[in-house]
């Protein structure tokens, strides 16, 4: 089988016959990784919103508990 001089030089043609430096398999894996990273970033953003809401709720409960303690202290 004849060796492809372009492939030996690290050059490849894609499905649109554009010259690429990355091998098609590497390019595909890179695209998949990019999509996975975008999904991860989206999920992390959702997680941060949920945790932020939880922190606000706990802060409110702590303030209410402190208020009730002060009421008990003053009336006791």
From TrEMBL:
Keyword set includes Translocase: no
Q: Which UniProt keywords apply?
A: Cell projection, Coiled coil
Query: GO terms for biological process?
Result: cilium assembly; protein localization to cilium
Q: InterPro entries given for it?
A: FT20 (IPR028172)
Q: Which GO terms describe its cellular component?
A: centrosome; ciliary basal body; ciliary base; cytoplasm; intraciliary transport particle; neuron projection; non-motile cilium
One matching Pfam family: IFT20
List the subcellular locations: Cell projection, Cilium
Q: What is this protein called?
A: Intraflagellar transport 20
Origin species, per record, is Oncorhynchus kisutch
Lineage, top ranks: Eukaryota, Metazoa, Chordata, Craniata, Vertebrata
């Amino acid at each position: 089988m004849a060796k492809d001089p372009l492939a030996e030089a690290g050059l490849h043609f894609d499905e649109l016959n554009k010259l690429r430096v990355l091998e098609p398999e590497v390019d595909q894996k890179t695209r998949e990784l990019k999509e996975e990273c975008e999904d991860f970033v989206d999920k992390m953003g959702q997680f941060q919103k949920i945790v932020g809401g939880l922190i606000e709720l706990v802060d409110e409960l702590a303030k209410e508990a402190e208020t009730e303690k002060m009421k008990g202290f003053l009336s006791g």
